[in-house]
């Protein structure tokens, strides 16, 4: 196909980021259609009666392109840059703003750890422009770490390489796992140090800085609405809602109280699907504040997130959350609902009927329940969720807490269970690799026997069931320690570890036997190592 000459009049599909022709596919609808902060200075301040502030990225010393996501480039119609240090790297680091780009930082507030935190906003992120992609769809290019904005408060507007790589890697991995998420186009080193107190112990250190270019149809969060409602800026609230509906949900029709209600219900539905997927793959967001909840139901703002290793409902990767465990794995579904209630309150001026808001929340509860059940049925390879299966699942979750058992390996290996095994050792053999303390897995035997019994009454053949289970139980996830190995290598100038991970994570459900080492359970050295087991918000 690539050898077939293209028609001379056909437009090139992929343009260089700096090609003037690409500007023909730029748009700035958010800036054009929504109220702006009249001031154009970067100093931190409360902003009123506006959805955003115009702001220019702050240039950095020596931009160098470290990673590029070809698939994201392809959907945008942007070619991989030829050089790590050319004009494209300058744009992606914020040193060069191209004609047609109208950068801005969005104004939002949020509930952090359960309390209203007032104005937050894009303190270190700014949207450069919207690109109409090769598929005709609109997506924002947003730089994270490109300097201070009116929303930076006392912080520096920068991001370190470790957190930027983690965002780049995980958002791409989530996409291939089938979880709704923002994406990432590029990772650029700034050539400048950033000072961070990683352990919050008074020992700040210089770390390499970086900028990620994130990509999503919209980065609007629950908090963009909450800040407007909190200040009773009801005209702006309506304008933002109308903009989101017009731009991202045209199928809902012209805004009206009824359409707002249907839109809220759609947000609830999408949020339910997203969180059910997190639970399916063992992803823990770590900071589910309402400013980190996407209005489009995408996983957004990858910070101190983590992946379950030992299956533990109470596990949180976020050291700031270690006490309260508000954002631990098992509480994510209820926290999402709590966040939707905060959004409901913010949207109530537009949706006066309380019953409409309640209907949205009911939709969340219903859709989450349906998805969670369906996902668990698929994970266990059950053809249909039958009477007694709820109990089977509950007993499994209890049994998994009996000894540290790797979630990813456990579910993946479950498809290999020899149902006709005559002794316990044979029955449990495929699961051994999932046990962290090299125990014999005895605690799981009663459950395994019941499960094998259940499957024997299932009409699906073994091969068909395995294929089905392997479609929903990933073999490869961006384990916390693997991300750290990629960070260590890249910090030392070696991008190959990251590149290999990215490649393997493009096919997380495939066997890929040559990459078996990346599917192994967490090695012991990583159990308590910073970045591998616990993460701070310092990034
Ligand atoms: P997060 O916990 O990353 O969701 O961030 C919460 C708020 O703090 C958001 O308003 C961020 O923009 C802001 N923020 C986080 N880190 C920085 C930073 N280094 N500079 C400026 N603002 C920041
Ligand atoms: Mg955030």
SSE map:
Layout: E1 26-27, H1 29-33, E2 52-54, E3 64-68, H2 70-76, H3 87-93, E4 104-106, E5 109-112, E6 115-119, E7 125-132, E8 138-144, E9 159-160, H4 161-177, E10 183-196, E11 205-216, H5 222-230, H6 234-248, H7 257-281, E12 283-284, E13 306-307, H8 332-347, H9 354-379, H10 389-400, H11 407-414, H12 424-428, H13 445-456, H14 462-470, H15 480-491, H16 496-505
Antiparallel strand pairs: 1-7, 2-4, 3-10, 5-6, 7-8, 8-11, 9-11, 10-11, 12-13
The structure holds adenosine monophosphate and magnesium ion (MG).
What would you note in describing this structure?
There is one protein chain. This protein is 36% helix and 13% strand. It is globular. The chain has 3 domains: 20-222, no CATH class; 230-379, no CATH class; 389-470, no CATH class. Helix 7 (257-281) packs parallel to helix 9 and helix 8 (332-347) packs antiparallel against helix 9 (354-379). By secondary structure, the protein is α+β, with helices and mostly antiparallel strands. The strands form 4 sheets. Strands 1, 3, 7, 8, 9, 10 and 11 form a 7-stranded antiparallel beta sheet that branches. It has a two-stranded antiparallel sheet with strand order 2-4. The structure holds adenosine monophosphate and magnesium ion. Adenosine monophosphate (AMP) binds next to loops.
